[in-house]
């Protein structure tokens, strides 16, 4: 792999039936071979979301993970969650469905969540290995949360069509991130699709919820929250809830 670049378009694609976790399988392949890889499965038996939350992974949806080891800057790695969401939103848009983004990497269609993205990494000496896992609601979605699925908006879609679009857009987006101006480029592309800028939001942290106005992203991709006392707070991690403007 070219230093500073990641090319999901030329990576090996492994298609599987039932797996425990596509993230685990993709990372295991990268450890064993040193080669970047996509692992896609019909179903995950041990899927997980951010912060260890369970992720329902029944047949009909897309489960795919890309494992790679690019030599990016720390700043580029820091903004990878935004890049991963941009790639998926652009792929969905290429399929004729409008997608927006909620910080840090929720992809929304008609304001409803359509995917989950889980990024995990490890060090092997001086090499950083990363896996980006996607779960995309293609044929169905959980009824217990505000979500949707892509076939509700374009009935002729299939998992294969969505996966092909995602791999293409991930190639363009991750390669852009590896360039010198990649962080600024990805930040701008994320903001172009952002939902809720200028409006009120709640940000749920581990032990509290903070409210304010969503003012955008700082140069490193942190959320900028204008608090009621006019302080500008930069937040690195949390769950965002959009609120209707008063």
How would you describe this protein?
Helix content is 25%, strand content 32%. By secondary structure, it is an alpha+beta fold. Helix 3 crosses helix 5 (182-192) and helix 4 (159-177) crosses helix 5 (182-192). It folds into two domains: 8-192, 2-Layer Sandwich (BirA Bifunctional Protein, domain 2); 200-242, SH3 type barrels. The strands form three sheets. It has a five-stranded mixed β-sheet with strand order 1-2-3-8-7. A five-stranded antiparallel β-sheet has the order 12-11-10-9-13, with no helix packed on it. A hairpin with a 5-residue loop joins strand 11 (223-226) and strand 12 (232-235). The chain has helices spanning 22-33, 74-78, 80-94, 159-177, 182-192, and strands at 12-19, 37-44, 62-68, 100-102, 106-109, 112-113, 115-124, 127-136, 200-204, 209-217, 223-226, 232-235, 239-242.
* Tally of contiguous helical segments: 5
Main sheet specs: 5 strands, mixed
- Write the CATH fold name of the largest domain: BirA Bifunctional Protein, domain 2
**Helix-strand category:** alpha+beta
Counting copies of identical and different chains, the oligomeric state is single chain
What is the second-level CATH architecture of the largest domain?
2-Layer Sandwich
CATH level-4 homologous superfamily of the largest domain: Bira Bifunctional Protein, Domain 2
Number of strands: 13
Level-1 CATH class name of the largest domain: Alpha Beta
Low-confidence stretches: 1-5
